[in-house]
Amino acid sequence: METSLKIGFQGGDASDALRQMVVEHVETLEQLHGRLTACHVVIKVPDKRHRTSNLYSAHIHMTLPGGIDINVDHTPQADARFSSPQFAVNDAFRRAKRLIKERVDKQRGEVKTLHERIERTLDQSES
Fold it and tell me: Helix axis angle, 16-33 relative to 85-108, nearest 10°?
């Protein structure tokens, strides 16, 4: 892995299993999209003392070559699936992967505009 990676845990103890999961996700993103300049992941662990919420969340900040920033800062709202730390990490990286793909497509000019879709729909209906 070439990416400068920082993994932090907020509100709880560090987990080697979650660290390994994050490393594997970053390696997968590198294989799909090339080198990342930097990646900082913070996993928020539920505070067991206050028991206000038992939901985990993962926040990701990535920098791609060319100074492109990707931020995933999704906080779950009463979704029981986020009581699993693995689900929270997988969800955050799924979102990051989608954002990276959107950015790469936009850079390549492969983004469809509404105007093009309307014209194509009208052309097809006339046939």
Answer: 20
